[in-house]
């Protein structure tokens, strides 16, 4: 990249352009990541208009904003004309109001109307991620007519892998893969080969449900219809991959008690990062006060047999880890559609049986360790190990069911992950521990 910039500065832009055009647009965007200021604009301007638009769709939000603020109105119009509509909408959604105003000012009335219409769909809905660049045909066409139509209109479409058959009112009647079109005789009618048993998406469907549909049917693109079954757009697999990554990052953040953020870590301010963390930490801190209340309530037990305090961390950690294991598997199952809310009792029964096996193994091994290695008395060893056994059972059942309960109340199951489960299980673990101490040791 330094070599290319040097060529531009030494007034050899054609050679610099040739170097760049030998590369993939994604690689060009990657090389531009560390370029800033005037060098970024110089580099962007030597690219052909169509290549520049493709590169533009891959560079960072900050670079896009800088370019739009630095280039002429005519250049902005050229970028918008070359971008696919879904990329344009995604780009506009990321920009501040003053940049959006500048972009919309440099688009024609029809494009502006389409952009505003796509922006009106709810966030994270199918309508907000679809593109309107697709090839539609009529069922009365012959294969020859369809191929001619593709040649005339397909150049500006995001994909021509699938043709969508619509009637005079734009209602979706069928789909045809391009392979089928190419392999049929020229005189064959579209209506004779179209597939009427197709899967479609509604504009208001949640993007996570859309991703699940793509996974289920292994499609590269799917049609999007409105409430009157009119074809309004398509969603392609590249957008679905972005959604899957976005949803995974969001779930990962929630599972670790963080507010989801679209910003890159190194580009996010300290205050913003702290704001995303402090809410959950405050909730968990306040909920953890229940454990201190329980300990204070049983301070006489701890005063009588001080050694009991030494095993509290082990008991709480094992319970938290057991619950986190169960919740992680159920959250994953819900995300992949492997378990549903109707499976609630099956999950409880399965986690209960797992906890019996795990709890027994841990309790027996721990009992032997306490007796023969740490040389504690049998009453204390029994107290610790029986408490451990019941704590594991409670933790597994709680960890397995809370994500289902969250789903029932239309909450993200990911919030019922390790931090929250650990806090809840800690409270139950202490209650069991001190109850066992009171009963077995007789304090």
TrEMBL record:
Its topology with respect to the membrane?
Multi-pass membrane protein
- According to the record, the segments passing through the membrane are 278-295, 352-372, 378-405, 417-441
Query: Taking every annotated instance into account, which residue ranges of this chain make up the domain CBS?
Result: 194-250
Please verify whether the record's keywords include rRNA-binding: no
- Domain of life the protein comes from: Bacteria
Q: Sorted alphabetically, which CDD domains does this protein's record hold?
A: CBS_pair_Mg_transporter
Do the record's keywords include Oxidoreductase? no
Q: Which UniProt keywords apply?
A: CBS domain, Cell membrane, Magnesium, Membrane, Metal-binding, Transmembrane, Transmembrane helix, Transport
Where can this protein be found?
Answer: Cell membrane; Membrane
Family according to the record = Belongs to the SLC41A transporter family.
How does this protein assemble?
Answer: Homodimer.
Q: What does this protein do?
A: Acts as a magnesium transporter.
UniProt protein name: Magnesium transporter MgtE
């Amino acid at each position: 990249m330094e070599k290319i910039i040097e060529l531009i500065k030494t007034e050899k832009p054609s050679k610099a352009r040739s170097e760049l055009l030998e590369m993939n647009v994604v690689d060009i965007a990657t090389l531009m990541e560390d370029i800033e200021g005037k060098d970024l604009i110089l580099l962007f301007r030597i690219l052909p208009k169509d290549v520049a638009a493709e590169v533009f769709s891959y560079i960072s939000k900050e670079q896009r904003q800088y370019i739009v603020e630095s280039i002429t109105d005519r250049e902005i119009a050229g970028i918008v004309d070359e971008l696919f509509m879904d990329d344009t909408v995604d780009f506009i959604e990321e920009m501040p109001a003053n940049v959006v105003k500048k972009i919309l000012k440099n688009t024609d009335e029809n494009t502006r109307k389409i952009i505003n219409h796509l922006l009106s769909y709810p966030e994270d809905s199918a309508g907000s991620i679809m593109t309107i660049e697709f090839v539609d045909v009529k069922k009365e066409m012959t294969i020859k007519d369809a191929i001619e139509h593709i040649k005339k209109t397909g150049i500006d479409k995001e994909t021509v892998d699938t043709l969508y058959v619509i009637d005079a009112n734009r209602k979706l009647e069928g789909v045809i893969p391009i392979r089928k079109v190419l392999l049929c005789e020229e005189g064959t009618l579209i209506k004779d080969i179209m597939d009427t048993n197709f899967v479609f998406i509604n504009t208001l469907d949640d993007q996570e449900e859309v991703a699940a549909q793509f996974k289920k049917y292994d499609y590269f693109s799917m049609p999007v219809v409105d409430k009157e079954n009119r074809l309004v757009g398509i969603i392609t697999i590249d957008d679905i991959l972005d959604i899957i990554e976005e949803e995974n990052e969001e779930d990962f953040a929630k599972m670790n008690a963080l507010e989801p953020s679209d910003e890159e870590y190194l580009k996010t301010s300290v205050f913003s990062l702290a704001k995303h963390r402090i809410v959950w930490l405050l909730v968990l801190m306040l909920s953890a006060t229940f454990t201190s209340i329980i300990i204070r309530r049983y301070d006489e037990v701890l005063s009588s047999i001080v050694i009991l305090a030494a095993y509290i961390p082990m008991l709480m950690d094992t319970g938290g880890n057991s619950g986190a294991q169960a919740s992680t598997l159920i959250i994953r199952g819900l995300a992949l559609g492997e378990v549903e809310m109707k499976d609630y009792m099956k999950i409880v029964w399965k986690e209960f049986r797992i906890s019996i096996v795990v709890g027994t193994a841990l309790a027996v091994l721990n009992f032997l360790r306490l007796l023969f290695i740490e040389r504690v008395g049998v009453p204390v060893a029994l107290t610790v190990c029986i408490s451990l056994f019941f704590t594991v059972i409670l933790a597994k059942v709680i960890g397995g069911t809370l994500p289902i309960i969250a789903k029932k109340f239309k909450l993200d199951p990911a919030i019922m992950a390790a931090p929250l489960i650990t806090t809840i299980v800690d409270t139950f673990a202490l209650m069991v521990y001190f109850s066992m101490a009171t009963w077995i040791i007789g304090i």
